[in-house]
Amino acid sequence: MADTGNPSAAPTGKIIPIAIEDEVKTAYLNYAMSVIVARALPDVRDGLKPVHRRLLYSMDGLGVRPNGATMKCARITGDAMGKYHPHGDASLYDALVRMAQDFSLRYPLIQGQGNFGSLDGDPAAAMRYTEARLSRIGDEMLQDLGKETVDFVPNYDESLTEPTVLPAAVPNLLINGSSGIAVGMATNMPSHNLVEVCNAVCAYIDNPEISIEELMTFIQGPDFPTGGIIFGRHGIRDAYKTGRGKLLVRGKFNVETTKSGKELIVFTEIPYAVNKAVLLERIGALTREKEIDGIANSNDESDRDGIRIVIELKKGAILKVVLNQLFSNTQLQTTFGVINLALVKGRPQTLNLQELIRYFVEHRVDVVTRRTQYELRKAEERAHILEGLMIALANIDEVVAIIKASRDVAIAKQKLQERFLLSEAQSQAIVDMRLGRLTSLEVEKLQAELDELKVQIAYLKSLLEDKQKLLGVIKDETRSISERYGDKRRTEIVAGEVENINIEDLIKKEEMMILISNLGYVKRVPVTAYKNQGRGGKGMISAKLAEDDFVEQIFVASTHEYIMFITNAGKSYWMKVHELPEGSRTSKGAHIKSLLTISPNEDITAIVALKDFTDEQFLFMGTARGVVKKVAASEFSNAKTRGIIAIKLDEGDKLVSALLTGGSDEVVLISRKGQALRTHEDHVRAMGRSSRGVTGMKLDNDDELTGLLRVVEAEKMLILSEYGYGKRVDFSEFSSHGRGTGGQKIYTVGDKTGELVGCVNVLDNEEIMCITSQGKSIKLKVDSIRVMGRSAQGVRILSIDKPDFVIGVDRIVKEDGDDDDGVPVEPSAENDEVSSEDSSVGEGGEES
């Protein structure tokens, strides 16, 4: 017999040989599934990972409610770690902090008190210093938890139980998103707007067969906590249809100009998950290394009211170039890769938008069903007790006698059950009943409570019997969540891919005055920089010009429009108005040849603003010799900054004016000597760009064309002479003639008025801007200038100190809803109409 007490005896267990690769494979798969299920991926139902769920459940157990006092984060973390999550306290605290950061979660689930970090990457203060409580929306995640709505499982040491999922009255996975790296897979889900998601959930409840395209009419796209702009809907559609997509996100900015004329790019929003301090360091490094030449300085002026990253541009820097360099080289433009991966019944699955909403609704159906069953059971139990009490009260004398005659409580309960056919619970309630319940008022209360319970029981049973009615409850609760916690969208979505997005979509739309000097300096100045003046004033300085230079062209256009320059050589060029350098009223501007490829002998002679290059619009051009030409606007779409031929000019002739027409308009040609010809543009056929044109107006040898106007019956013609006199004239004063004729008199030119130098269409409620060769400008209201006859010399609009002279005038178009700018100045006596010694008599004896 073997000595079993010998420690050196061989083991009696069986050894099973296993290949090392099989053991490693099994162990790794077990580890991988543990990471996937219990750590890195959210549950599709409540959108939470185990660590977040345990923290919220622990806070619920500690009673840290939204309307209560905050509690030290160290205690919250310790409670969750000791009861449910036996891992490091650092990871628990990090998860708690993230749930409290309004720049990490679109709708924070925890309300923090103290330092919880910042967009600059600053860490939160130690957990012993910070405090927290559930936010109101976080509390909604835990509603009805005590009504047996979800399953509970033992915790890690089986001393307590914890929920496998939270009831989640809010669609947390969609509104807050999630991110995590598991083993061999990862999730990266963007946040969304609560109102949009709740509307989509309600639409799905109404129609479970709703398509993803229809759901996208409710959910525009992701809505990040830090705002920003998403370019294009292609990536959004991919993410919603397949569960994967790429979103191009840019920071949102405004363009500002300082009093000294410096141009600033001010970013008020940055892409999601971008560290602001690192971003500013990157911009500074690019500026120092000259990789971005146009930046003079960059500063962080952010405060508790929001982000404000100010980038100051160098003088002459092109805004669009600097922006493109910033987007290309910094995190002001990022790509958010959407991966809608979540746990569905414990298995990782990539989900489309319809599936995300479907699984949430299914979870709510399960929660509300179990809640209804719980409430029905409790109501029936209470009604059962009340029915027993009502029987006892109806036979109170006999009940008291039975109890008094009984030896103990058990015997009393047994006799009561036998006498009145009561249950154990009813008999217990009767023997526990206080004497105060015997009053008539208490009896009435018990009866009212019983009646109310019967109504409630009937309603709860109807919910369980009718699924559509149950879905209606879920829909009502979802709408209530939306109404209480919903807010406006933060992230803007711009249709089209980023390459097709013009920068003016991000630039404020406003009217700009564009000035071009004889030496070729150009700038744009907001018309709001000019104050209204009375008629006849001297104006204000609009440009500090170099010696021997003078302002030659003036034009008013919106920052969102194209501006086409046509030169005396008949070539056309175009730019966006916002691409012109913005200056102050007194700045010189940038040279036109630094912006356009203009030859040395070319000068800008005509400017036209247009919104687009279409076949429905035409460019109607007029030369100094009276030649006119009509070309479809679409012919100039390729002009850009290198230029293409617009008109073939005769030797010694030059282009003086151009305007946009609709193809069937009437136009008025006005000469410097005061003649005007009204004619229909049908008399001028559309031509190719390289043709000469046809005779438009017959001019005297010493006369030239000064401008073109399109006939608009609701508007009037405003004409201006070189020495500051002008008037308004009705289009109806002129009858239509064929082209090639001399027209009718529109102005009596004299030595005191000088020749006509400008004409423009105006409405009564608009304003005009006039400018002289030396850069003096005046902005005044149109209705301060009288409507006069064809021969009248008009009123003094601008006081001129010779040898200065007026070079042009343009209208300032009022946008719908615009208020009048500035305070109108009443004209003084000396600034009113032409004085008696200067007066002349117009047609019909009308005083000028």
UniProtKB/TrEMBL annotation:
InterPro entries listed in its UniProt record: GyrA, GyrA/parC_rep, Gyrase/topoIV_suA_C, Topo_IIA-like_dom_sf, Topo_IIA_A/C_ab, Topo_IIA_A_a_sf, Topo_IIA_dom_A, Type_II_DNA_Topoisomerases
SUPFAM superfamilies attached to this UniProt entry: GyrA/ParC C-terminal domain-like, Type II DNA topoisomerase
Stored Gene3D superfamilies: 3.30.1360.40, DNA gyrase/topoisomerase IV, subunit A, C-terminal (2.120.10.90), Topoisomerase II, domain 5 (3.90.199.10), Topoisomerase, domain 3 (1.10.268.10)
One GO term (biological process): DNA topological change
Cellular component per GO, a single term: chromosome
Pfam families documented for this protein: DNA_gyraseA_C, DNA_topoisoIV
Enzyme Commission no: 5.6.2.2
Compositional bias annotation for Acidic residues: 816-836
Record's function text: A type II topoisomerase that negatively supercoils closed circular double-stranded (ds) DNA in an ATP-dependent manner to modulate DNA topology and maintain chromosomes in an underwound state. Negative supercoiling favors strand separation, and DNA replication, transcription, recombination and repair, all of which involve strand separation. Also able to catalyze the interconversion of other topological isomers of dsDNA rings, including catenanes and knotted rings. Type II topoisomerases break and join 2 DNA strands simultaneously in an ATP-dependent manner.
Note: Few gyrases are as efficient as E.coli at forming negative supercoils. Not all organisms have 2 type II topoisomerases; in organisms with a single type II topoisomerase this enzyme also has to decatenate newly replicated chromosomes.
Protein name per the record: DNA gyrase subunit A
Protein species of origin: Treponema primitia (strain ATCC BAA-887 / DSM 12427 / ZAS-2)
Lineage: Bacteria, Pseudomonadati, Spirochaetota, Spirochaetia, Spirochaetales
